[in-house]
Amino acid sequence: MSATGDRDAYLIDASMYVFRAWHSIPPDLLDADGQPVNAVHGFTRFLLELLERRQPRHIVVAFDAALESSFRNALYPPYKANREPAPDALKRQFAHCAALCEALGLTVLVDGRYEADDLIGTALHTLRARGKRGVIVSADKDMSQLLQGDDEQWDYARDQRWNAAGVKARYGVHAHQIADYLGLTGDAVDNIPGVPGIGAKTAATLLAHYGSLDELLARHAEVAYLRLRGAAMHAQRLKDHRELALLCRQLATIAIDAPLPADFSDAPRGAHDESALNALLDHLRVGPMTRRRIAAAAPAG
Fold first, then answer.
1. Nearest Cα to 216, choosing from 181, 251, 171?
2. Dist. CA 74–CA 108, nearest whole Å
3. Is the pLDDT of residue 68 over 90?
4. Are 188 and 168 in contact (CB under 8 A)?
5. Is 69 left (phi over 0), alpha (psi -120 to 50) or beta?
6. Count of beta carbons in the 10 Å neighbourhood of residue 117
7. Which residues on neighbouring strands pair with residue 162, listed in sequence order?
8. Over 90: is that where the pLDDT of 257 sits?
9. Which of 215, 237, 254, 295 has the fewest beta carbons closer than 10 A?
10. 3-state SS class at 234
11. How confident is the model at residue 1 (pLDDT cuts 50, 70, 90)?
């Protein structure tokens, strides 16, 4: 086991790990109502392992409830329209996972208009102002735009970690350029189109030369004279699709002004709510081994 310092705050992109469990564990684990709870059991194993390994004193767990009602859908209705709606069985399991985290004394964030990324971004912005170092537990490259100083992102499944200084080696652009980069390339996962004809390498090259999307668009005519394959066409594309690039950047930018609970402080781990926890574990038909791990993971004092 390795305890973290009091300055470290862990921010978990929960939906990623719920989805992973949903797809990797057969749906033959049932709750007291006969409903599948495979994703809950998989998420619980992930969460307990993290708590055992790192013993965090400050922790935020963010869930998505805005996949079809995000403020981004108002800006661009096709946003994430390429995704199938979550089935009711999965939505039910998301609710169980959030209830489990609350019963474990963890700070849970969920909002109808802001996605988990935005809730994590806002929480990190708030925690950083209170002297905390953020550790974002997510494999999502979009999250790297949030990294500053000695903040860290942790791809838990691959056990890979990087800070702001390590972003360029991974993605070809600096942390503060991630949203600009996605404004150019788009993001197929989120159905963000980007500028037609501009791919990852071209976007990285242009941002390395101009520094930002705003500067690139302001000086787009110069692009035709760069030693870059298809330079003239790229210059024309930037001129023709300026507004689209700005919209795509807006869609890819993680908010840091999402609403947080009125009592949000520095997300300290609280004591287990034994009554709520036992009732939930009974309903989920959680076995004695996992219950012992849960009991052992309770914060000291």
1. 181
2. 25
3. no
4. no
5. alpha
6. 25
7. 153
8. yes
9. 295
10. helix
11. very low
In degrees and rounded to multiples of 5, residue 62 shows phi and psi of -105, 135
Amino acid (1-letter code) at residue 244: L
Percentage of residues of the chain with pLDDT beyond 90:
92
Q: CA-CA distances (angstroms) from residue 75 to 42, 194, 249, 252?
A: 35, 15, 12, 12
Per-residue pLDDT reduced to its tens digit, 175-229: 999 999 999 999 999 999 999 999 999 999 999 999 999 999 999 999 999 999 9
Q: Provide CB contacts within 8 A for 278, sequence distance 6+.
A: none
Give residue 192's pLDDT.
Answer: 98
Exposed (0-12), middle (13-18) or buried (19+): which is 151, by Cβ within 10 Å?
Answer: buried
Looking at this protein, which amino acid is placed at residue 46?
A: F
Question: Two tokens at 226?
Answer: 């760069």
Residue type, 148: Q
Separation between Cα atoms, residue 196 and residue 244, nearest integer Å:
10
Domain formed by 175-252, architecture: Orthogonal Bundle (1.10)
pLDDT reported for residue 97: 98
Amino acid present at 183: G
As a whole number of angstroms, the distance between CA 38 and CA 64 comes to 18
**Token digits of residue 128:** 């950083």
Domain residue ranges of the chain, discontinuous segments joined by + = 8-171+255-286, 175-252
Residues 36/15, Cβ–Cβ less than 8 Å: no
Which pLDDT score, from 0 to 100, does residue 272 have? Answer: 97
Q: Give all strands of the β-sheet with 59-62 in edge-to-edge order.
A: 107-109, 59-62, 8-13, 133-137, 152-155, 160-162
Structure tokens at 11: 């921010």
d(CA 275, CA 136): 30
Q: What is the pLDDT of residues 133-165, one digit of tens each?
A: 999 999 999 999 999 999 999 999 999 999 999
Q: Provide the 8-state DSSP code for 216.
A: H
Count Cβ neighbours within 10 Å for each residue of 2-11 and write b for 16 or more, e otherwise: eebeeebbbb
Residue 1 one-letter amino acid: M
